[in-house]
Amino acid sequence: MSRTARWPRLLAALWLASLPSLAAAGAGSYASDTVGPGIAVRNLPYRAAFPLQGTPPADGRITSVYYAWHFSPRPSELTVLLCQGSRCVNVSQDASGSTAAFRGLNPTQPFQLQYFVTGRGALMPVLSGKQQLAVSYEF
Q1: Fewer CB near the terminus (10 Å): N or C of the chain?
Q2: What is the pTM of this model?
Q3: What is the pLDDT of residue 16?
Q4: Distance of alpha carbon 92 from alpha carbon 100, whole angstroms
Q5: Which among 129, 130, 71, 67 has a CA at the least distance from the CA of 101?
Q6: pLDDT grade, residue 11 (50/70/90)?
Q7: Which segment of 17-31, 62-76, 121-135 scores lowest on mean pLDDT?
Q8: Domain boundary assignment for the chain
Q9: Domain spanning 22-138 has what CATH number?
Q10: Average pLDDT, the chain
């Protein structure tokens, strides 16, 4: 085979080697829900932990997270944070949505919602509804 005839084969081999291995790649997800405590006192942090569902792979990486939370009534001073470990994202403006803020993190670490109502004065009790979470990952 001549030198010039080898170039297309060599380039094709290099191109194929640069593609991610589809056979080794996988994807998965889990969904979790919880009911958090009601809020009765201003400026006091409350937490609702999402139980880890299934057994996500230790070598997995999160691709996206969907969340939904509900409080009734919803005070204007309500702050809601979605957290995994020490990384938190403020999701106060949208009671449901998705975020890529946890992209690349390990799916085996649990999530939680942290919430509080700032301000002064009396607070009409805030009831917590069903909080939902869905985590997509690849491995």
Answers
A1: N
A2: 0.81
A3: 43
A4: 16
A5: 67
A6: very low
A7: 17-31
A8: 22-138
A9: 2.60.120.260
A10: 87
